[in-house]
């Protein structure tokens, strides 16, 4: 039976009609109260947050997947290790189901590491809801604001509230944005982060010294500051995968699905043929239901089941650039809701730098998307009009492109009118696809996908969904002051070129970084820095330590140099040149952990160098800088 639902401007009737499948738009099939109480939650918390807990080895995880046979299949196999896939694995395993997850590259290798870094309800969508009297859009905002607070609460070391300043250049804009953002506060209700407020021109200049007082001959009349959430997206994703592993899921990165397995009648998907991309070995894994969370690549998985399937994805490119910290003050973002061409532009402090963006344009789906020079120039042009500092192309430390997997509405004329809500469908029995949505709502997307999987496979979970109240690994017991323990009790022992070991101070910058990146597990990294003489910094001006390479290889499934510089740390995103200089030492430590020979180390250097070429910093981009020089 086909289930259809229209929400806002999104219509998926065509998709359902094409496959005779089920389509659900944020409509859980199973309520949270369908399965007993919270009796498993405390046991789960103890298991995940046990001080001595370590994730199973990669070899052990692969053995579990390979052992899932026709007569003893997994309940759920998730394809895709992004935010939604990792979230689905965590959701399913914490309901008592047997779960596997495979990811072709690395956790967060695609869209999930290339986001805007914001956890938001969608101010623009609230505006559309009000002016279009669109209850669907309003529900999206309401739901996203609820999820925003839950993400922050469940990973407090990786997420925080961020004040965002909206400049006003007329008194009408002051009133308009003040009322609009007060409505945003009101809709958030008990999930409110902080109350928005108006600041005068002088107060605004004190809070954001680089903000221009005049734009296009219009004088600044003040600003309205409201709050949204900010995150370290890739590390949050890795935390999801590791939490799922600790809870009992068999998660395997660098493992690619090469084909889907069908039953004897060819009427249902019952498993997948998987290739370990690190060894080249292939094996079959059987599962009662497969959840396709491939992000922009989910259509390629669906075509393995039915080569004539209609595409669901409308890929949209989002480009971001990284600028030095002096472009924006620490702890205050700048968001212009509507530039002269109608786009949103922002500048946000992030990990000691400034991230600016973004573009939103149709694109093709590629493994390593690259930003085009005109997109970088567009961002520079857009922000230069709102700043009193010279905006230079030479200041771009890194630039990257991410592909947003937006759900298709055949009647939409551009990607702005395509809803960011998610779609869950089962267009081939045994294959549940989840796509669309955004980072902020990954948890409820995963919940909906698992609900659909339970219905499809007639699974019997032992509890309801508990992920709305389960902190990720490193989050339980963490406090903003936790870094002081590292600073006071640990030393960074550093090995010199001559082989001599000298002590170094665990300074506040390094201690804060470790605490925010690893939460309560930061002491494990500090122990390695102290006891194994891996306390040196990997790059000048950055707090990343050699010890992190060893820790991530042992405890976070870090299998390549790119895994480390892009997703276990964010060095590739923050400064391409610094990441390139750190590579030899990163590879040396990984070689020691994974027993790589010289040929493998050379291969890793080549792959990582090629990866960094896709990040168009001023050092590796070919451009003719006429405007921003």
TrEMBL record:
Signal peptide: none
EC number in record: 1.1.5.3
Name this protein carries in UniProt: Glycerol-3-phosphate dehydrogenase
Pfam families assigned to the protein according to its UniProt record, in alphabetical order: DAO, DAO_C
UniProt catalytic activity: a quinone + sn-glycerol 3-phosphate = dihydroxyacetone phosphate + a quinol
Keyword hit for Transport: no
GO cellular component, one term: mitochondrion
Domain Alpha-glycerophosphate oxidase C-terminal stretches: 465-600
Domain FAD dependent oxidoreductase: 75-443
PANTHER family in alphabetical order: GLYCEROL-3-PHOSPHATE DEHYDROGENASE (PTHR11985:SF26)
UniProt keyword annotations, A-Z: FAD, Flavoprotein, Mitochondrion, Oxidoreductase, Transit peptide
Pathway: Polyol metabolism; glycerol degradation via glycerol kinase pathway; glycerone phosphate from sn-glycerol 3-phosphate (anaerobic route): step 1/1
Entry cofactors: FAD
Cell compartment(s), UniProt: Mitochondrion
Lineage: Eukaryota, Viridiplantae, Streptophyta, Embryophyta, Tracheophyta
PROSITE patterns (alphabetical): FAD_G3PDH_1, FAD_G3PDH_2
GO biological process, one term: glycerol-3-phosphate metabolic process
Source taxon at top rank: Eukaryota
First-tier enzyme category under EC: oxidoreductase
Family, as annotated: Belongs to the FAD-dependent glycerol-3-phosphate dehydrogenase family.
